[in-house]
Fold these 2 entries.
Entry 1:
Amino acid sequence: MKPEVKTPLPGPKAQELLARGEKVLSPSYVRPYPFVPARGQGVFLEDVDGNVFLDFMAGIAVNTTGYAHPKVLEAVKAQAERFAHVCFSDFTHEPTLSLAERLVAKVGGGYRVFFGNSGTEGIEAAIKLVRHHTGRPYLLAFTGAFHGRSLGALSLTASKSAYRKGFAPLLPGVVHVPFPNPFRPPLGASPEEVGEAVLTHLEHLFATVLPPEEVAAFFLEPIQGEGGYVLPPAGFLPKLKALLERHGILLVADEVQTGAGRTGRFLALEHEGVEADVYVLAKGLASGYPLSAVLFREELGSWHPGAHGTTFGGQAVAAAAAQATLDLLEGGLMENAKEVGAFLLAGLREMQKRFPFLGDVRGRGLMIGLDFGSPEEPRPDLRDQAQKRAFEKGLLTLAAGPSALRLAPPLVLSREEAALGLEILEEALKSL
Ligand SMILES: Cc1ncc(COP(=O)(O)O)c(C=O)c1O
């Protein structure tokens, strides 16, 4: 397959569907550009008018194995023929139990698993778990973080005030700490010193307003996703973890976007040599089937039967899709994410030399952000135009943060397909 845009966008069928949507769908949905999918294969998506796009967004970093992977289809079909759902909160069943065992083995043992349907649900479960276990009221999170939109998860989310506007009061006891963004450092720090500045700020908070012995957990994304695909400075996370340990504060790693192989390792925290007390996985775990998994250290499992549950969480077809996804990740996709991601990043860094308005190019594996503008002057206008032009030329991307374009293709992306993406992006940037 090759990207091919044959009609003006949106095409006639897409226009019709978009117009129907305007009449019945919630106005809270965003539509960054008028793409209306009909079918997918591998890393390509065809729209309802027969235009073909190279997909560098994967349904917001979800479709790990691309579209219609035969192994995933086979697993889904086989489980759907047996049963789809018998409520895992009430009854043990094999597909989901085996998945739990496999996930625990992947983090080296000593954890237990709770299944939900979405990243938000996973975060919500983690909030309840750490509060219940520690009996401590406060939670910490970073500015720029995105942890979901239910009222609990939204209380941690701090990537855009628009997400919170109109919904207060949120959960009390959530305190935000500036994220050590090396490209746009907070606290007046230099990029080199920003990690230390944030740690000092946190110690200052503990000394003045926030008793650390009343803090249950710090929720963090190892790489900020919705906040702009931003990596913390090298060595920051191990220092933060040591500081939290000194105060008996749990670390919850929100690996909803970074996990399931996207960065070239199963968990992004593995790159940092840091272990979390709780991991939340979702998005890429089941190749597009709704599933989240909260893995928590065995000793945190002091909550009682009935303390938490959900009707659909751990649904059997989603679990079968996750098993097939794990087979493929272990069978070479993580390695592919690392290799093709490095190729893509190198190509983009070359591109940065030709387009000085690209202020920063960063990422790990197939989680890559291009930041438009300088640290002082973000250029969301250029980012939005680049996204639109890329779409018109057959490349699907998504925005993230104040001024970044995120590239999160399926992990089955080949080097040739990555090169094709670079070509389209180059054309899109030239046309700005
Ligand atoms: C890091 C992170 N956490 C949580 C969520 C919420 O997940 P969901 O949209 O599946 O509820 C997201 C979604 O983008 C995310 O990126």
Note: The pocket of pyridoxal-5'-phosphate is lined by residues 60, 118-120, 123, 146-148, 221, 225-226, 254, 256-257, 282 (CB under 6 Å).
Entry 2:
Amino acid sequence: MYDLEDAIVMRRSTRLFLRDKPVPRDLVTQALELAIRAPSNSNVQPWQMVFASGAARDRLVEALLERADTVAPAVPVLPDSFAHLRRELGALVYGSMGIARHDTEARRLAVLRNWEFFRAPLAGIVCMHRDLGHVDALGVGMFLQTFLLALTARGVGSCVQVSIAGYPDVVRAQLDISDEHRILCGIAIGYPDPDFPANHLDVPRNPLNRNVRFVDD
Ligand SMILES: Cc1cc2nc3c(=O)[nH]c(=O)nc-3n(C[C@H](O)[C@H](O)[C@H](O)COP(=O)(O)O)c2cc1C
């Protein structure tokens, strides 16, 4: 078990899992018990999670891949002034998978793995009641990061995926999620494939002074 600082530093997005190595349910439950300690506005506890494993996960993946084959996902578009960041991350992530910048077919296949939950045996769907707003989404985010860290501390890998929210009707139909809940994102959970170089990628962060100001006088 890692301590908190180790877990923060060790956590990274896993983009290929060991398909046949399930995560014991009690490890996931332990991580969730810690995650629900997250703060939330008025203690609303706005997180709603649905998990799919086994045949339910396989049916979900099949339905998502079928849709992704023909329809572009409805994921939020980044404003122009931020779009270069997605391109830079794409170059880094797909580069680490050995995919050349202009190899559009290899890239397409790598992107499609999103809807396979990167082969993770456990697929999570993160939802929030549709009447709640931005401030409550902050609470879901705090829950999620705590969950990710608790998984990391237990040697379990994860990847948060907005791509899953790109086909909300497919996810709703497969997992019986009502319109009352907005689907915010997915989360792939499993044991990382150690031989996949992209799983060891250390995505750089801005220096603090790009995002933080201290005002003293
Ligand atoms: C809300 C959210 C949505 C994300 N959606 C995706 C996604 O759809 N596909 C993907 O491969 N990574 C996704 N990521 C992972 C980010 O790309 C990743 O967290 C970021 O590049 C930093 O890398 P790291 O997690 O390895 O530190 C998402 C992360 C967050 C927090």
Note: The radius of gyration is 18 Å.
